[in-house]
């Protein structure tokens, strides 16, 4: 379902110290994958801690449309009765993936090697985003694909009747591309191989192995290689979704920039393919402690303790970009409060996210008195002692841009407003009450 309704303008105001515990929602990437693999497995998959944001609800609906039985049994508790590898039926209506690039790309992969047809649509943001990066390799499996001009949605896929396995070297470090190919490879006989230029988040590989598929990974001079043996019998599992480090980044950032703050964020995923922001913050001098490191549901998790900190600007190396690809908007806000400049390198992919995130952050920060420089693939933010604020940011249907500017306004001299907070519900439905519970003045 697309983000519907009128724009919801919101404002955040300079706040007193933040205190308390932030129970952030389940990981978005893991939630999509749990529903999709549950739908492809035989038997009942039970999921706890599922993110109930709109992106995930759209994926749940899509899995039902392909024939899986998907039921909500309580808050974050879901049951999926799968149809087995290759068992998808043909949906009766178009699959609307709303705002979610991950949803649409992974589901296209999951159905591309099954002989059914489906048409995929999305909201205005998703309809602008490139799909050929996924549909080109999916066509190599034997799927027939038509798209709008420039490889955009709506896309119609007639899944391959006799799929062949594929070896694909991705030009872009993208977990969505890798995952779409691996999910397609599930129903192709033989070995499907994906090589990515840098390792990206590995939730698909971990979860496929957990459901009983054979997955092997290797780092070579050419890149990170993932091999999957096709046609496994996926066995239903219990999946405990860890809390999302990308969502945790917003209360973490707020605590770092609002003087006197001290908060805890329990049970956050510390998957090493997702921890680039936390490495960067520690280099900036952030007071972050990781407590009770443990494994939950196959993923490393920890409780975070964060205190307000004096920060200094750093150079974020391009090799780290994929491990914090969704965190650059909020890092650019934190960087505005650091001493000196913060340079973010190798971030061209930000231009094809829910919005052009380099442009959206640069314009919004400038409107609030912060100096920013950009190139096609980098962004530099000049920190200052007192950040003026007082501006209004355009959020372009992008949840992370909306939350980033609301966090900014908690520590600026004057309030910060955004044109539309509606899309926050795609990934963090309880963002406002959670932040208000810590003492933040926003709404
Ligand atoms: C995701 C991968 C990333 C990320 C997105 C979630 C995933 O996109 O930006 O929010 O779950 O696979 P890319 O892999 O295309 O960079």
Automatic annotation (TrEMBL):
<protein>
    <recommendedName>
        <fullName>3-phosphoshikimate 1-carboxyvinyltransferase</fullName>
        <ecNumber>2.5.1.19</ecNumber>
    </recommendedName>
</protein>
<feature type="binding site">
    <location>
        <position position="101"/>
    </location>
    <ligand>
        <name>phosphoenolpyruvate</name>
    </ligand>
</feature>
<feature type="binding site">
    <location>
        <position position="174"/>
    </location>
    <ligand>
        <name>3-phosphoshikimate</name>
    </ligand>
</feature>
<feature type="domain" description="Enolpyruvate transferase">
    <location>
        <begin position="14"/>
        <end position="433"/>
    </location>
</feature>
<feature type="binding site">
    <location>
        <position position="176"/>
    </location>
    <ligand>
        <name>3-phosphoshikimate</name>
    </ligand>
</feature>
<feature type="binding site">
    <location>
        <position position="353"/>
    </location>
    <ligand>
        <name>3-phosphoshikimate</name>
    </ligand>
</feature>
<dbReference type="Pfam" id="PF00275">
    <property type="entry name" value="EPSP_synthase"/>
</dbReference>
<feature type="region of interest" description="Disordered">
    <location>
        <begin position="1"/>
        <end position="27"/>
    </location>
</feature>
<keyword id="KW-0963">Cytoplasm</keyword>
<comment type="similarity">
    <text>Belongs to the EPSP synthase family.</text>
</comment>
<feature type="binding site">
    <location>
        <position position="326"/>
    </location>
    <ligand>
        <name>3-phosphoshikimate</name>
    </ligand>
</feature>
<dbReference type="GO" id="GO:0009073">
    <property type="term" value="P:aromatic amino acid family biosynthetic process"/>
</dbReference>
<keyword id="KW-0028">Amino-acid biosynthesis</keyword>
<feature type="binding site">
    <location>
        <position position="400"/>
    </location>
    <ligand>
        <name>phosphoenolpyruvate</name>
    </ligand>
</feature>
<feature type="binding site">
    <location>
        <position position="357"/>
    </location>
    <ligand>
        <name>phosphoenolpyruvate</name>
    </ligand>
</feature>
<feature type="binding site">
    <location>
        <position position="129"/>
    </location>
    <ligand>
        <name>phosphoenolpyruvate</name>
    </ligand>
</feature>
<feature type="active site" description="Proton acceptor">
    <location>
        <position position="326"/>
    </location>
</feature>
<dbReference type="GO" id="GO:0008652">
    <property type="term" value="P:amino acid biosynthetic process"/>
</dbReference>
<feature type="binding site">
    <location>
        <position position="33"/>
    </location>
    <ligand>
        <name>3-phosphoshikimate</name>
    </ligand>
</feature>
<feature type="binding site">
    <location>
        <position position="28"/>
    </location>
    <ligand>
        <name>phosphoenolpyruvate</name>
    </ligand>
</feature>
<feature type="binding site">
    <location>
        <position position="176"/>
    </location>
    <ligand>
        <name>phosphoenolpyruvate</name>
    </ligand>
</feature>
<comment type="subunit">
    <text>Monomer.</text>
</comment>
<keyword id="KW-0808">Transferase</keyword>
<dbReference type="InterPro" id="IPR001986">
    <property type="entry name" value="Enolpyruvate_Tfrase_dom"/>
</dbReference>
<dbReference type="GO" id="GO:0005737">
    <property type="term" value="C:cytoplasm"/>
</dbReference>
<dbReference type="GO" id="GO:0009423">
    <property type="term" value="P:chorismate biosynthetic process"/>
</dbReference>
<feature type="binding site">
    <location>
        <position position="29"/>
    </location>
    <ligand>
        <name>3-phosphoshikimate</name>
    </ligand>
</feature>
<comment type="function">
    <text>Catalyzes the transfer of the enolpyruvyl moiety of phosphoenolpyruvate (PEP) to the 5-hydroxyl of shikimate-3-phosphate (S3P) to produce enolpyruvyl shikimate-3-phosphate and inorganic phosphate.</text>
</comment>
<feature type="binding site">
    <location>
        <position position="28"/>
    </location>
    <ligand>
        <name>3-phosphoshikimate</name>
    </ligand>
</feature>
<keyword id="KW-0057">Aromatic amino acid biosynthesis</keyword>
<dbReference type="InterPro" id="IPR006264">
    <property type="entry name" value="EPSP_synthase"/>
</dbReference>
<dbReference type="InterPro" id="IPR023193">
    <property type="entry name" value="EPSP_synthase_CS"/>
</dbReference>
<dbReference type="InterPro" id="IPR036968">
    <property type="entry name" value="Enolpyruvate_Tfrase_sf"/>
</dbReference>
<comment type="pathway">
    <text>Metabolic intermediate biosynthesis; chorismate biosynthesis; chorismate from D-erythrose 4-phosphate and phosphoenolpyruvate: step 6/7.</text>
</comment>
<dbReference type="InterPro" id="IPR013792">
    <property type="entry name" value="RNA3'P_cycl/enolpyr_Trfase_a/b"/>
</dbReference>
<dbReference type="GO" id="GO:0003866">
    <property type="term" value="F:3-phosphoshikimate 1-carboxyvinyltransferase activity"/>
</dbReference>
């Amino acid at each position: 379902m697309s983000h519907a309704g009128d724009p919801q303008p919101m404002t955040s105001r300079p706040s007193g110290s933040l205190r308390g515990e932030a129970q952030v929602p389940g990981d978005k990437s893991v939630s999509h994958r749990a529903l999709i693999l549950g739908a492809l497995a035989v038997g009942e998959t039970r999921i706890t801690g599922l993110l109930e944001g709109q992106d995930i609800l759209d994926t749940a609906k899509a899995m039902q449309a392909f024939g899986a039985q998907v039921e909500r049994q309580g808050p974050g508790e879901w049951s999926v009765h799968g149809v087995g590898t290759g068992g998808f039926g043909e949906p009766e209506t178009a699959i609307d993936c709303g705002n979610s690039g991950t949803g649409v790309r992974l589901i296209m992969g999951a159905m591309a090697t099954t002989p059914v047809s489906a048409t995929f649509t999305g909201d205005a943001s998703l309809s602008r985003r490139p799909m050929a990066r996924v549909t080109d390799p999916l066509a190599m499996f034997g799927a027939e694909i038509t798209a709008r001009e420039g490889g955009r949605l709506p896309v119609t896929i007639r899944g391959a009747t006799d799929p062949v396995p594929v070896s694909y070297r991705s030009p872009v470090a993208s977990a969505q591309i890798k995952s779409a190919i691996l999910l397609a490879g599930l129903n192709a006989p033989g070995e499907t191989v994906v090589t990515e230029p840098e390792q990206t988040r590995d939730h698909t590989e971990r979860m496929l192995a957990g459901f009983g598929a054979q997955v092997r990974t290797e780092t070579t001079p050419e890149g990170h290689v993932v091999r999957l043996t096709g046609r496994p019998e996926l066995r239903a599992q219990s999946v405990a979704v860890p809390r999302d480090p990308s969502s945790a980044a917003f209360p973490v950032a707020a605590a770092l920039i609002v003087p006197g703050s001290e908060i805890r964020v329990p049970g956050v995923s510390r998957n090493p393919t997702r921890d680039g922001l936390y490495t960067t913050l520690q280099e900036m001098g952030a007071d972050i402690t990781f407590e009770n490191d443990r494994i939950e549901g196959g993923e490393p998790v920890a409780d975070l303790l964060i205190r307000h900190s004096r920060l200094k600007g750093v150079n974020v190396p391009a090799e780290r970009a994929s491990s914090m690809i969704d965190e650059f908007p909020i890092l650019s806000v934190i960087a505005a409060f650091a001493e000196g400049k913060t340079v973010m390198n190798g971030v061209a992919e930000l231009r094809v996210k829910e919005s052009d995130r380099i442009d959206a952050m640069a314009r919004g920060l400038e409107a609030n008195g912060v100096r920013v420089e950009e190139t096609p693939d980098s962004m530099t933010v000049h920190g200052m002692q007192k950040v003026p604020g007082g501006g209004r940011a355009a959020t372009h249907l992008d949840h992370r841009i909306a939350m980033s500017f609301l966090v900014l306004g908690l520590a600026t001299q004057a309030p910060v407003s955004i044109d539309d907070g509606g899309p926050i519900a795609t990934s963090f439905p309880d963002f406002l009450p959670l932040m208000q519970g810590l003492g933040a003045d926003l709404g």
